[in-house]
Amino acid sequence: MAKICEVTKKGSRVGGGYSNRTRATQFNPTGFVRKYPNLQKKRVYVPELKKTLTLTLSTSAWKTIAKRGAHSVLKKAGII
User: Fold this and answer.
1) Main-chain dihedrals φ then ψ at residue 14, nearest 5 degrees
2) How far is 29 from 80, CA to CA, in rounded Å?
3) Which of 3, 48, 65, 77 reaches 20 to 30 Å from 10, CA-CA?
4) Which DSSP string corresponds to 37-71?
């Protein structure tokens, strides 16, 4: 399973590059680093459907579900 949030579609990004010290002196690449979002496996109960879904969510998606409600967020994301 890919490391992607099912609601926000957040995935990995490439970070890194050159430090300012490297730019000022000589060519010495620092390399690239793959950065992953903070994904958690959560069981979400949807009272309108009387179902429990197991989802891989980013923490920002989990906060959104807590704020707006599971049914509306999952419906907008196309999961239900």
Assistant:
1) -100, 125
2) 46
3) 48
4) --EEEEEEEETTTTEEEEEEEEHHHHHHHHHH-HH
Structure tokens at 18: 């050159």
Cβ 7 vs Cβ 77: under 8 Å? yes
CA 47 – CA 30 distance, rounded (Å): 50
What whole-number distance in Å separates Cα of residue 27 and Cα of residue 18? 9
The domain limits of the chain are 13-77
Give the helix/strand (H/E) hosting 13.
Answer: strand 13-16
Residue 59, both tokens: 């923490």
Q: Which CATH code fits 13-77?
A: 2.30.170
pTM of the model: 0.79
CA 33, CA 31: separation in Å to the nearest integer?
Answer: 7
